[in-house]
Amino acid sequence: MEAASQAAGVVVLERGSPPTPAPECPHGPTLLFTKILQGKEKGRRFYACSACRERKDCNFFQWEDEKISEARLSARKKYNQSHQPSKTHSDNVKRYKDFITLPLSKRKFCQECQLLLLVPEWERHSGHPVLTDISVAQLRRPSQLLSPLENKKTNAQYLFTDRSCHFLLDLLIVQGFKRVLCVGTPRLHELIKLEASPKQKNFMKSLLLDIDFRYSQFYPEEEFCHYNMFNHYFFAGEVRAS
């Protein structure tokens, strides 16, 4: 194995060919790391979370050569499952269909929980800041409805401006693309869906891949996949054709 970079610090390592299976944390398969000092490896190699750079955000740690008992593996599996979203993508698709049929006066969004609220759920969120009268236009721009995840050591969401999105969309149209894969670019995905109509000559389809599961509230399974691009991992085995 060779380090991907010889700069001082902690670097990601290749796992060989074919790669050995990596242990998993709540964010999917972990990555193999080592410390580099003056161009040389320093210390034992270890597995850690692919998405979080600080142990307080994801405390997974395992030495590469460490032997793990069956009991510990079982406990880890249960822990990973317990840290997945409480609702599946299919659940959220059904909720959205119920939500969109509500009259405007009954469409609410909890800003604290970042959740579209159905009427039976209002009481549980009575003490939270809530947006009311959620319009179809707002539902079509979820990146403006949702609060950005700002932890620089985990999500660190940086959203494109409308100007940047229009620039990219114009390029896609000029090039004649009909299918677009938006990896971590929810605003471009929104614009494609807003601007592209099946009746238009320049119609294109878009699939959003993003680690932010909140978007599953707004898109069906053929338009959004819960995805970790650092380890190329589809949560819950979601793989869709766009």
TrEMBL record:
Source organism: Python bivittatus (Burmese python)
Domain GRF-type: 25-67
Entry-linked Pfam families: N6-adenineMlase (PF10237), Zn_ribbon_GRF (PF06839)
Chain's gene name: ZCCHC4
Organism phylogeny: Eukaryota, Metazoa, Chordata, Craniata, Vertebrata
Gene Ontology terms for molecular function: rRNA (adenine-N6-)-methyltransferase activity; zinc ion binding
InterPro entries cross-referenced by the UniProt entry: Mlase_EEF1AKMT1/ZCCHC4, ZCCHC4, Znf_GRF
GO CC entries: cytoplasm; nucleolus
Keywords from the named record: Cytoplasm, Metal-binding, Methyltransferase, S-adenosyl-L-methionine, Transferase, Zinc, Zinc-finger
Places the protein is found: Cytoplasm
Name of the protein this chain belongs to: Zinc finger CCHC domain-containing protein 4 isoform X1
Position of the signal peptide: none
